[in-house]
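Propose amino acids for all 731 sites.
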């Protein structure tokens, strides 16, 4: 044995799959901080011991240096130039120590992280923990967890891509500094003035806010819409087979009732009005099969067809991928690569109980090529099934999404749907004297569809075309009696609120977010009470969301319009391609946002006017509870999200613990450090209660205690009757 190889995957379940692919049932399992699998095999032509383990997502997270983390100690404008540092993302998991322990004695490192930019970034996080030389580090590139694909990847190891890793670093730093600066300023400004905001944070995000902007843009169109009445003429005709046809007026509709009435009177005058067939056209039409499935299209289809939100869809897709049922679910590519074996995937699905017969027909007739109009983004192949799984083995959302992915794949290799479209044009001529003003009469048309060949819609039935056949013997020159001519009134209607699927489409077209982050941004605006999800998966902005977007427009529309973020994404793409310097892109983006932030702060009263007209002031909210230690006047307890105390005289708010009830304490119970009257917090559910000083809780007087963490039961002050020193132990 001359080599020991450490192999690191992104999740424990993937590490297990990799070990089984190479060792079968012969891998030795060892329980560490995360599982470790060991087996013997060949590496670079020699015998080797393999250790397979994993991280649990990102090893590190980016944050400001400690002196910049306090909301009250740092002016938000300083954050644009503040130093940042990477810290262990999940200290309790001890991933860094685990990796270092497993790396001892290893001669090579093989990285099996997900093959996208985030995965590439995690590769370099793992390398940062360890001290392998670049020549000792190799990268596996794979798109599914099928054993054959994993073995193929092992035989073709490459190297990690530092440019793609730096692109993630760039996005993280830009989003952290911009988002936190605006969020801290907005939150402190508005929560210190209004009581019924119903939001713990008034957050800003370079992607989140344009996402919200799309929903408010549609909301504004709906609110400003003024319905307009229209009229249209609707005849009914009797044809030879006894059916009644109702052709459409070629003029469509008119918005003047007097004009519409004139047409009606001229057509209805006299007896025995006739409709003559002016022309009949027939042509073959097609409904084209879909292109191969990428992430964004999967998110749209899951929302529209399955009623699954994008956040849930990606969680389910990740589980299906790690279980070996579908290929990697994060891809922008919608075109099968030249060497992709579609026949092998079809053969696997030919055993399926639901669509096996259809697949066997496709195989027997010769597998067609998928549409060439898809896009090869150069990342992973499109999303496809990698195993044949029956309903029952998978249930609930997992089954429904697998079913969608499998059906979509099969559909891409089937013929287009086709049908015959027949268009009949009628002329209805009045039979009264003086009708010459109508020229040759009024023209009406009707369209029918027949002779349907389902093609791919037999596997995707929701994409089928509804057949509306016309009588087959209609021909030019035929005349039919007009049963009736009616004048129908209607009103124009506003557009509807954006559905999730439509919002995803807008985000993709405008370059807001990536296939991996789009679900996160949509989820954020819902969780932060900027929008709500209504029936039909429509996204409706709340009052807070509307006021925020309108406020940004009053100060600087570029804060909410998509073009600034789209430009940043373009620059980050250049970093990933090795065509732009990471530091230059970060500096340029932050310099632009810093100038916008300064102007935003200067003009914040423009936004505040909208808040003032929409929300209740703190002075008129809440109830009197305890005295402020600075002014000795009573503060108010705001029992609305977020719960907080407000001193009107000092114009200052104090955070309190959430998910419980705050009550006033005894007037004798005051903090010996600052004179604030203590309040009593009772935890919801547990019933546990403890006192706290509003100032000490927000601005701990002792080093090493984070903000919003210190209650009196943690205080070491000897003179405090409620302190741990007096009571002996932390409750």
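Proposal:
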């Amino acid at each position: 044995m001359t080599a020991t190889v450490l192999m690191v995957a992104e999740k424990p379940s993937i590490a297990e799959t990799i070990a089984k692919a190479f060792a079968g049932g012969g891998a030795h399992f060892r329980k560490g901080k995360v599982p470790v699998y060991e087996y013997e095999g060949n590496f670079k032509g020699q015998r080797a011991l393999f250790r397979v383990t994993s991280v649990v997502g990102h090893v590190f997270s980016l944050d400001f240096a400690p002196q910049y983390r306090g909301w009250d100690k740092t002016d938000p404008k300083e954050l644009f130039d503040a130093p940042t540092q990477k810290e262990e993302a999940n200290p309790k998991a001890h991933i860094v120590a685990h990796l270092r322990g497993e790396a001892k004695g290893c001669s090579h490192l093989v990285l099996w992280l997900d093959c996208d930019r985030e995965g590439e970034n995690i590769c370099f996080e793992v390398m940062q923990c360890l001290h392998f030389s670049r020549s000792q580090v190799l990268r596996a590139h794979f798109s599914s967890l099928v054993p054959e694909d994993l073995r193929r990847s092992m035989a073709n190891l490459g190297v990690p891509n530092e440019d793609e890793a730096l692109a993630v670093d760039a996005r993280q730093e830009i989003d952290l500094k911009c988002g936190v600066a605006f969020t801290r300023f907005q939150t402190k400004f508005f929560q210190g003035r209004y009581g019924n905001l119903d939001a713990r944070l008034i957050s800003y995000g370079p992607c989140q806010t344009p996402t919200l902007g799309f929903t408010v843009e549609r909301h504004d169109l709906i609110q400003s819409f003024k319905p307009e009445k229209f009229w249209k003429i609707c005849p009914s005709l009797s044809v030879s087979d006894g059916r009644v046809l109702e052709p459409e007026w070629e003029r469509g509709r008119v918005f003047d009732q007097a004009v519409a009435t004139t047409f009606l009177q001229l057509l209805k005058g006299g007896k025995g009005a006739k409709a003559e067939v002016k022309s009949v056209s027939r042509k073959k039409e097609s409904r084209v099969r879909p292109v191969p499935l990428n992430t964004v299209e999967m998110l749209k289809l899951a929302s529209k067809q399955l009623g699954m939100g994008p956040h849930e869809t990606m969680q389910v897709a990740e589980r299906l991928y790690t279980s070996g049922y579908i290929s990697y679910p994060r891809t922008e590519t919608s075109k099968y690569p030249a060497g992709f074996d579609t026949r092998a995937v079809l053969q696997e699905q030919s055993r399926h109980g639901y669509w096996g017969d259809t697949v066997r027909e496709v195989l027997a007739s010769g597998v067609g090529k998928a549409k060439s109009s898809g896009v090869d983004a150069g990342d992973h192949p499109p999303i496809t099934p990698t195993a044949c799984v029956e309903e029952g083995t998978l249930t609930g959302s997992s089954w429904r999404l697998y079913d969608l992915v499998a059906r979509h794949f099969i559909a891409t290799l089937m013929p287009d749907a086709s049908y015959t479209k027949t268009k009949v044009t009628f002329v209805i001529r009045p039979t009264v004297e003086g009708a010459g003003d109508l020229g040759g009469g009024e023209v009406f048309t009707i369209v029918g569809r027949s002779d349907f060949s389902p093609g791919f819609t037999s596997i995707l039935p929701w994409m089928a075309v509804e057949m509306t056949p016309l009588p087959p013997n209609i021909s030019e020159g035929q005349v039919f009696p007009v049963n009736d001519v009616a004048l129908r009134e209607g009103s124009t209607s506003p557009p509807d609120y954006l559905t999730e699927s439509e919002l995803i489409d807008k985000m993709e077209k405008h370059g807001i977010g990536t296939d991996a982050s789009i679900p996160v941004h949509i989820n954020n605006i819902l969780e932060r009470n900027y929008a709500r999800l209504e029936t039909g998966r429509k996204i409706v902005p709340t009052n807070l969301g509307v006021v925020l977007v309108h406020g940004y427009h009053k100060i600087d529309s570029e804060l909410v319009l998509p073009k600034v973020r789209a430009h940043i994404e373009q620059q980050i793409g250049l970093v990933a391609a090795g065509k732009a310097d990471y530091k230059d892109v970060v500096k340029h983006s932050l310099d632009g946002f810093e100038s916008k932030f300064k102007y935003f702060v200067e003009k914040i009263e423009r936004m505040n006017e909208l808040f003032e007209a929409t929300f209740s002031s703190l002075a008129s909210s809440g109830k009197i509870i305890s005295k402020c230690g600075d002014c000795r006047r009573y503060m108010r307890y705001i029992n609305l999200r977020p719960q907080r105390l407000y001193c009107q005289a000092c114009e200052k708010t104090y955070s309190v613990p959430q998910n419980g009830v705050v009550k006033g304490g005894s007037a004798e119970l005051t903090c010996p450090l600052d004179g604030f009257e203590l309040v009593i917090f009772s935890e919801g559910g547990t019933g546990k209660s403890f006192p706290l000083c509003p100032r000490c809780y927000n601005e701990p007087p002792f080093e090493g205690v984070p903000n919003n963490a210190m209650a009196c039961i943690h205080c070491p002050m000897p003179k405090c009757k409620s302190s741990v020193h007096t009571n002996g132990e932390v409750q």
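The chain has a mean pLDDT of 90. The chain has five domains: 3-160, 169-194+204-224+496-614, 229-288+418-491, 295-414, 620-714.
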